[in-house]
Hints:
Layout: H1 14-41, H2 46-58, H3 62-70, H4 76-85, H5 92-111, H6 114-145, H7 151-215
Helix pairs in contact: 1-6, 1-7, 2-3, 2-7, 3-4, 4-5, 4-7, 5-7, 6-7
Amino acid sequence: xxxxxxxxxxxxxxxxxxxxxxxxVYTLTxxxxxSYALWFRFKIDANQILSRILSFVDSxxxxxxxxxxxxxxxxxxxxxxKSGLLKANRSDLEIRRALEQTTAxxxxxxxxxxxxxxxxxxxxxxxxxxxxxxxxxxxxxGVEMASAAKKQEVLARGISVAMSTTAFGLIVxxxxxxxxxxxxxxxxxxxxxxxxxxxxxxNHLSAKNRMGTMKR
Length: 216
């Protein structure tokens, strides 16, 4: 039995290969979607955006600072910073609470579906193992029922199914695990950038409000 022939979902052995193939297709779709979101849709010059916002805050031009956020209103970092700016004249507690609550709301946009990759890697491995066991069962059952002349052929076919499903499961699982690690690292960088920017804005607003209180 050839390797490609085993992808037939209607054959006794092919169902496992076909299921692993379906896992690989879904995994590839997920990796492409997450990569586009994290490396392109959420790409931003955080330092430049934050510097512009802080310069407008220093000049008490909060409306312009909010406009900077609105220029990238779909980006999680800008959403978080805008929430802090809207509370700029309130107490430190209210500013911090707004920033923290908004960060908690936007974080799922960055993290969504990424945990599925670890699950898909495990599923591919387990399907490969299940196909291996099925192939060995098929081999031993076939040897028991086959004639002496056919025993070697039946045994070879069963072992081929077992090894092919194991190999294909690992072929899918290993890149999926690597992709999961890379995507997780990227999303953690984005989350850290958002948190650092939010903290910088909070400290800036807090210091400015204290100075305003002292002048009074």
